Structure formats: C-alpha cells, structure tokens
Amino acid sequence: MLGRLRSLFPEKLKYRLFTAFLVLILLPFSILNLYNYRRVEAVMQQKISEKSHDQLQQIIISLDDLMNMAFKTWIMLGQDAAVKDMLLHPENGSVLDNKHDMEAKFISINNSLFLLNPVVYYTILDLQGNIYTSYQPRQALDYERLVQEPHFKEALSEEKSFRWMTDEANYVSSDLSTSRWLLSMYTVFKDKNKSYKPYGVARISIDYNYWFKSVLNQSSPEQEYFMIRGDGEHVAQSRTDGLLTADAVRQIVETRGSGYFIDRDSATIVNYSYIPSLDWYMVNRTPLGILFNEINALKRQFFATSVAFMLLFIAMTFMIAATITRPLSHLQNKMKEVVHKSLKIRLPHGKYRGEILDLTRTFNAMLDDMNGLIRRLKEEERQKEAVHFQMLLAQINPHFLLNTLNTMKWIAIRKQNEDIEEICMSLGKLLEMSLNSEIDMIHLKDELELVQAYVHIQQKRFNYKLDVNFVYEEETAYALVPKLSIQPLVENAIQHGIAHIQGDGNIDIVIERKTGRRLAISVRDNGAGLAGARARPSARKSSGIGIRNLRERLALLFKDQGSIELTALEQGTEAVIEIPLLLSKPYGTKAPPIPDLPGGQA
Fold it and tell me: Which residue in 116, 133, 115, 111 sits closest to 124, CA to CA?
C-alpha cells in the first residue's frame, strides 16, 4: 500500500515541491474557502429566514387582531340593549325600521373598530324569523334555509359561545367580494336573566383574501405569500399565477410547526409559520437568486481573485523550485561526469549564492580531497610493492638457512652424529614456524613443543646443566596463544639469567587459568635476576628489544586485554603473560595426544 502511494508522487524534486504545494496549501485553502462560504450561506439563510419569520408573525398577529375585533363586535352587539330588545321583541318596530337600526349598528361598529376597508360581514338571526345583514347577499336569504344550515344548527345546539369555521363558502355579492372562502365565527346571544336562554344567533365573517392582499400591499414584489390549510389546500396567495410546489406543501404540512427549507424545484427559500387555532400555515417564498445576488457577486469576485493568486503562487512555486533544482540538476550531471573524467570536474562559484554556493564549494573540496586520497593510496601501494619485494628478498636467506640445516641433518645421519642431527631438527622447527607468516595464534601444546625444541638446543650448549619444567592443565592444552610468545621469555631467562651463574639452571613454566576466563603463563628462573641484567648494558639492550616486541604483539592481538610483567625474585626473575582464555579444540577429528614434555605435569 505504501509503495502504491509513493508511486503516485513524481520523481523530480521540482514536481514534488509543486505537488506538496498543491496538496498542503492550495487544496486545504480551497476546502476552507468552500466551507466558509457554505457557513456564510447557511448563516444568511438563517438570518433571512428569521426576518421572514418575523414578517409572517406580524401578518399572523394582524389576522389575530382582526379575529379579536370580530369577537369584540359580538360582545358589543350582545351588550347593546337596543339590539337585544330588537332580537327579543321585533314586533315593537316595523321590519324596515328594525333593519335600518341594525344596519346603523353595523356601520357604527365598523367605523369604530375597522379603520380599513370593510372586510367583516355580519349576519344576525333572531329566533322569530327575522334576518339582519351588513352586506348584499349573492342570493336572497331564506330564514328557514339558514336556520337549517349545519353551522347555525351546531351553534344553537352546542354549549360553546362561539366557534370559527375556516371553510365558509363566500355568500357575499360578487360586487363586494370575489373571494372563494370566508372565515366565519358563529356565536349565540344568550339572555343571562333567563338562565342564558338563546335569543339570537350571529355569523361574523372575515374576507381574509381581501385582507391578505391589503396587508401585503407594502411587501416586496419579489416575495410571495401563501395561506394553506392543514390538508395542503391553498387558501390565499399574493399572486394568482403562483402556487407552492407539491413537495413544498408536503414538507410544510408534515411538520405541524414553523421553520424554513430550500425548495430546489422552485429555487426558493420557503418560510412557514403554523396557526394552531385555524390549522392554517402562513408561508413566505423568496427566490434564492434575489437573496444571494450580492453574496454570489462577492463570491465570484473572491474566487476570481483567489484563482488569480493561486496561478501566481503556482508560477512562483515553479520559479522557486527551478531556482533550487536547476543547480542541483547541474550538480547531478557534473557528478555523473566525475567518473568519466577522473575527478577533474570543477563547479564555478560565481553564479551561485547561499546554500547552493556552500554545496558547490563543498563538492569541489570533496573532489580535491578524493584526488589527494587517491594520490596517497597510489603512493602507499607503490611502497607496499617495494616492501613486498624486500620481504621476498629477505625470505631467501631463511629458506637457504633451512635448506642448509636439512643438508647438515642428513650428513649427520650418514655420519651417525646424533647431537648434530637433534640440533638441526630442533632449529628446523623454530625456523619453519618463524617463516610461517600466515599464523598468529597457535595451540598451547604447539607453542610448548617449540619451547622444548629451543630448550633442547640450549641443553646441548650447556651440557645438560639446564632443567626446564612444564606445569599446566590438560584442558588448557588447546588454548590459543600468540606464536613464539613463551620461547622469547625462555631465551631471555637463559641468556640474561642462567648463563651468568655457577651451577645448574632451572626454569619453571607454569600455565594456569584465572577467574574471568583469563590464562596466565609464568616463566620463572634461578638466574642472576633483574639487577644483574641491568648491570650489563649489552644484555639490557638485547632483552629490551625482545620484551618490547612481545608487548607490541600482545597489544595488536588483544588490545588492552593482554599484558606482560617482569618481577624480580630472591634468586632469578619471573615473567608473567596474561591473555584471554580462548579454547579451540580440533573440530570433527579426534584430538591428537598431548606430548610428554620433560619434567612436565599435565
């Protein structure tokens, strides 16, 4: 998965910088701008909806005031003694006089409560066959037919003092009202002096369509207003050619409350408020284009500016990337030429600045150092070849000496001179081991054999007045020790100690294991000691070379883990070597037997 993601990114540094700029700067910036504009639009929609909701509430309050005034007219008519007397005793006056007086009451009430054009119509029936109206009906009124209408019958039969009907068909002359429906309140006049016995019934109707249009005269022509019932039927609208969409109506009637939403079908924002007392909705619809003309203009201006700046940033990014990557590409090409032109390439300093200049100088300095290193390596190689040639020349003499010893050995064998034969064999072992430059570490048992070969030669020299004892554990026989590390100590003990005393010489070689996986090799003699050796300048010079050589070899092999110490005894000297205990028995074969050394203990 990670490999696939890496494959999507370009290889060139310039395009990587550009991609990083797009992904890390431009893309988040664009997303943030879109998010902010969405938030601004949402806030504006909410603010506009709140304003529209306030307008709807004002219209609803106006409708409530109109309904309250209609209710007050019923109260005023019920409290008017003349109206009560007219309804209870219509025989006290003529029919025409009663109608004239009732119409005068209607006009007086309209003049006192309804300052606008008359949108309220009154119909009063007494219980004695008389009808009083404030309007001209569409058709002649029949008392018996009116009394039998469901609304009048329900008003007389119910205990409620009044009730509102929202689906009253318009009964007013078309010269006065062209509305299809009226909002009517049916109420009953009751005589409290006679146990609230009804003495008349009234119908007070509001031409809400006329009122609705008169209220909206001052509204913006771009906005539309609607009144719909709870079942979704349109009751009134500010424009005769405009209706709410079916989806908008469905969304409104399902809420049974107030709110707003975006109607995508009509590209408008719809605000609505519920009127619980009538089960109506007051609705406002505003085109989105009108609401967001200014913000859309600002959005276009801002996005145009943003795009211009983005293009400018992209161009600047390419320029900056090219400024950085062009010297690097030049440096890359020069590095490719380095191999073909034997490190003779140099970059000019004059046309670069800053980090690129430091990089150029560092590159040239690196080439200079590499050329110097190559020259030194060539010189060292020539020196090594010369040393190797000298080593080959130096090996001629030891090999010639070894071949000569072998010739002397065979002559001694033919002459049956055993002493010369044994000396030649012992010296041959020492020379053969010293000539083998490929081996630095050997088993302890092999090192002790070399010591024994050297001791055998010295015993011939001192006429067997030299005794060497070996003390070691069998498990340490295959411990690894530096080649020819004990023999120099034995040689030093013989030449600078035992050779300068009267009587027999004695050397003890003790090998033992120490704690911490350490191996100690001790060589003790009964010779003249350190004080006697220091008294002889020639002896001190030769012994110092051997001990110093052994110290250097131990340092090369074991670093600070190897050491050698010389200690003066009451008679003689003790030399002790300490090295790490490294056991290396032969693998896959049976180990050869440990040789029996003269005077030794295994």
Answer: 133
